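Suppose a colleague, Dr. K., hands you the sequence of a protein chain of 403 amino acids and asks what its three-dimensional shape might be. Before reaching for any lab equipment, you can write down a predicted structure in token form. Begin with the sequence itself:
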Amino acid sequence: MTPLARPSGWLLDPSTIFLNHGSFGSCPQPVMDVQAELRLRIERDPVHFFNEELDPGLEAARQAIAALVGADGEDLVFVRNATSGVAAVLASLRLQAGDELLRTDHGYNACNNILDRAAEMSGARVVVARVPFPLRSADEVVQAVLAMTRERTRLVLVDHITSPTGLVLPIAALVSTLQARGIDVLVDGAHGPGMVPIDLSALGAAYYTGNLHKWCCSARGAAFLHVRRDRQAGLHPAVTSHGKNVPRTDRSRFLLEFDWQGSDDYTAMLTVPEALRFMSALRPGGLPQLMAENHEKALAARRLLAADLGVPLPCPDELIGALASLPLPPRSAQDPAPQRPVPAHIDPLQAVLYERYRIQVPVVPWPAPPQRLIRVSAQDYNAASDYETLSRALGALLGLRRL
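The predicted structure, expressed as tokens, is then:
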């Protein structure tokens, strides 16, 4: 296969068509260079770095994130990933037997598990709102969630962009409506920052957690938790360290508790300003232009694939960001088999697409096996030819119209 030409800075294998930015992102070379230099600085004098350099570095990163997501930096703390942010919120809630925790059936499995654990430990109950997919409008999402709220609903966990189905959920409408009913909302924004515009001050959700190593392309292990000012008291990290009682008055106890979690590698968080600089420099119009172009690229990709799969578009364009999922024929014994054993959670079709065509794209069981979706991503380094190659490969493997 002829190596693919990639824009400067991306380290992806040139022989691979990478259509799965959504899972783990991709960290560009300039960002990795900054992280490598930070690690060298630490090792030259760890005591000086942690005592003198870490705080201002984290504060610079915090302000860069705040500017990106329309927030006050005083309301932002660092976590390793969005799942950790969800865990911190659930661990801090004082749930009682009979309380209800509401989520959708499009939620991320790890976060679903956190809700289940919180319910097991407290006697609360997890309630699941069934959001249709395909769906005709954002209002179907809102109505599905509202229909499952009760007097004892304590918290609603909702994705900003769903992982399996790639839907941009109407979080502004959900937050305003639920808060009017006295129900707090925790937004799992794992895919939000860098994919879609965000204004947390306007949103007003009690809690929002988002990754920076996905669509902002920082080093992995960088994420934030935004907590509305009136919900910060009593909100604690999973690890209680010196921030709990360190004699400092220059910042809130909320920031102090989260900023220092003991000896750790904080360099991923410190790469965030460089990651945002890199991503903004990719287009004359900065990150907003890149996000808009990725959106259009994802829309074009799903139109192509839908036509060749012979399926209708499963949702309106306004519910798409830079991820798009489409239904595939159900998994069957007639599917081509990979040459090597694959983990049980990987659909054989996904493995065959990689083995035969060097296409890295997820095939997701939805809503349950043997039904499944294929989910494509759109990022700076992707071109229309990537999706055309995928379409031809699916046609050849599944006997579809495009051969």
